[in-house]
Structures are given as structure tokens and as C-alpha cells.
Amino acid sequence: MAKKKHPLFFILRIAVVLFLALILFLNLSSSAVSMVFFSHLSTWLSGGESMMTPLRITSSFVIFAIAVLLLLKKPDLISLGAFLATGLFVVLQVIYVVVMSFQFGEHPVIFVSTWTALIASLVLLFRFRGSLPVLGKFT
Questions:
Q1: CA-to-CA distance for 100 and 79, rounded, in angstroms?
Q2: Residues 6+ apart with CB under 8 A from 116
Q3: Cα separation, 13 vs 120, whole angstroms
Q4: CA-to-CA distance for 139 and 112, rounded, in angstroms?
Q5: Which of 13, 44, 63, 125 is the most exposed place for a label (fewest CB within 10 A)?
Q6: pLDDT at site 113
Q7: Whole-number Å distance between alpha carbons of 133 and 98
Q8: Whole-model pTM?
Q9: Whole-number pLDDT of residue 2
């Protein structure tokens, strides 16, 4: 019997893609939040702001690729996109805690929304886990 398609998972995919689009827009528009984030990250990685532009461009390409993978119809590509989105949001949380030193007073909405997107991508990853070789064993 074929699996029934649930609109909830489509809505979750769209929500994660919209959050990724928001991050992409902030990266490409050089918003103050994005600039502070990449400035801290570049200083932490290289001791200066020399890596800020390459980090912004590289992360923009990665975010765009993840969003495209989540929008496609094949379960294999959706599971890969959910896996990459989960990894991206985990890395964002780690960078937020380690590099930015848990600055809740400045941007609590970003922290909470990143956690929400992480949970949504984990739900998508759990739903499409059968398509990934490693996680497919647990179906």
C-alpha cells in the first residue's frame, strides 16, 4: 500500500524554505544582523574580517541549494535537503552559542526562530528518513 501524502509535510517544507529564503535575503542584502554574525564568525576563524565576504557568498550558495532540494518532488532529494537543513540549523545554533557568546538580549527572535526551523527540519528528516542510506536502516 502506498504512503498517503500529508499536507502537513508540504507545509513544513515550505516553512523551512521560507526561513532559508529569509536567511538568504539577509545574507545578500548585507543587513546589520548578517554583517555582525559574519564579522564575529570571520574574527573567530581568522582573527580579522578578511573572510567575511567569502563566508557570506559560500553560505548563500549552500542555503540556496538546500532550499531547491527541499522544493523538489523526489523523496530522495527532499531527504537530502532535510538532512542538510538540519545540519545547517545545528551549525547556526552552535555558532550562535560559541562564537556570538549567547547574546540573547540583542536577537532573541533569531535564536527562537532558528530552533523552530531546526525542529521542523528534524520532522522532515524523520518523515523522509527511508531515502537516506544511513537513516534508512531505522525505518
A1: 30
A2: none
A3: 8
A4: 30
A5: 44
A6: 78
A7: 31
A8: 0.79
A9: 46
Residue type, 47: G
Q: What is the spatial distance between Cα 39 and Cα 121, in angstroms, rounded to a whole number?
A: 27
d(CA 49, CA 69): 31
Residue 16 CB-density burial (10 A; 0-12 exposed, 13-18 middle, 19+ buried): buried
Only one residue has cell 545554533, namely: 93
Give mean pLDDT, residues 19-26: 86
Q: Tell me the one-letter amino acid at 118.
A: L
For residue 81, with 0-12 CB atoms within 10 Å meaning exposed, 13-18 middle and 19 or more buried, which class applies?
buried
Higher-scoring residue by pLDDT: 14, 139: 14
Torsion of CA 37, 41, 46, 47, to 10 degrees: 60
- CA-nearest of 87, 67, 86 to 77 is 67
| Site of grid cell 536577537 | 107
